[in-house]
Amino acid sequence: MDVFERVYYTRAIHGIIAGIIAGVVIPVDHDQGTSVGIALLLTIVLYIISFVVGKSMAKNVPKDKRKKIATEGIVPFIFMTIVFMILVYTGLHQSVLLPQHQ
Question: How far apart are CA 71 and CA 7, in angstroms?
Answer without folding.
Answer: 10
